[in-house]
Amino acid sequence: MDAAKKKAKEEHVTGHAGTTPAECQLMLVVTMLSYALWKTIANRYPSLLVPSVASTAFDFLILAVPFLVAVSTPWLGETIAFLSFLTAVFAFVPRRPKGPARKKQQLAETKATKPADRQHWPFLIAVRSTLQVVTAGMILMVDFQVFPRRYAKTETFGTSLMDLGVGMFIFTGGIVAGPRIQSSSMDRRSAFKNLNNSVRSCIPVLVLGVLRMVVTKSVNYQEHVTEYGAHWNFFLTLGLIPIFISAVQLIMPGINLAFLGGLVISVYTFVLEKMELQNYILTAPRTGLVSMNREGICSFLGYLTIYLIAAAIGVRMNTHAQSGLQKQLPNMIGELSALALAFYGITHVLTDVVEIPVSRRMANISYASWVLGACSAQVMGTALVDLLFGSHNVPILFKAVNRNQLAVFLLANVLTGVINMSIDTLSVPDIAAVLIVGTYVLVVGAFAVILDSMNITLKL
């Protein structure tokens, strides 16, 4: 990439102040309503549950297109109203399937009442896969003019949709891993085995992080240095968190995950506020390897906190699910609602009373609290959809993406790079940009569905 184009693209994603937490939450409401609409239609037409080109296109139309419309136009309110209207229409004018289709649905409903692997709880599949799909769309769309700048990652302080997406990635990983982490922390032998497994499973992610850094430098690809630093990237954070937790459990077997998360963020906040770490992160010259990557190194503690507390939430949810997922959904929803309100209340106190503004760049305590509140609300809302419309049906697209999450995320990153290197994204008209992003998301989703249809799980 030539120097002028690189500079223009870097300026395009630099210096933004974000939007309100409320608008970010409303964007998540779009994804919940899309899931609800999918449920109500699929309940009427079970043929959409059979893998095919038509069912994949249907999933894309209902689960991806509304978000792309809401994020690229001023029609957020209209999108929410339209999805709500369609959901109500299909919900209150039911058409029960007959014959073999009805028997298949009854069998699925029976299975849904039994305890399930937490990775395959329908609402968690929906939350994790929704995140993958919308993230894939945003990491490319942000490079086009059509993407509102208020949704792009903030420079230093503020809240934005992409800031929230980063934290949600950490949260969803933690909530699924929680029960496994807790069960392996009871004695040193289990903790040592878990550390070994964590290192082995995270090596591919860390290798991807190093490769991304090398490729980015070698092709002169655009970089937002204040995001993670000159060399650090999200793959490195993602890969190091499980290893760090396993190492702590080896030293302190049986430590409570929520307590550990609270301890980490408390110490980090003290150092940020009282020992001038914040000033160092924001103003220090980039003279050495550590200072060049200070954002990634320091924000690691904030992301670690999100992961640990999400893991503790996952442990609690797993306890409920032991006596039947569908039976315990109301209790889960109640507790998640309380958590969302509590974290949002804490965020309000931190930002408006204590005056610690949200900062994704530092992943400070206000950022962690905001992400935990928004994520708890998202999981709660998605679980509520399952409670209202049944948890037996899961979109084919979501099941496929959930099966190969890292491969899907990697493909999305590679295609984003290829498209950015191939065209001048900043000069593409808005309609063309939306069509390009939509086609790209469809390709990424189709890749996941094809792998799933071939019963392939890529162990990256």
From TrEMBL:
EC top class named in words: transferase
Any one GO MF annotation of this record: glucosaminyl-phosphatidylinositol O-acyltransferase activity
One annotated Gene Ontology cellular component of this protein: endoplasmic reticulum membrane
Documented EC number(s): 2.3.-.-
GO BP terms, alphabetized: GPI anchor biosynthetic process; protein localization to plasma membrane
Function: A acetyltransferase, which acetylates the inositol ring of phosphatidylinositol during biosynthesis of GPI-anchor.
Record protein name field: GPI-anchored wall transfer protein
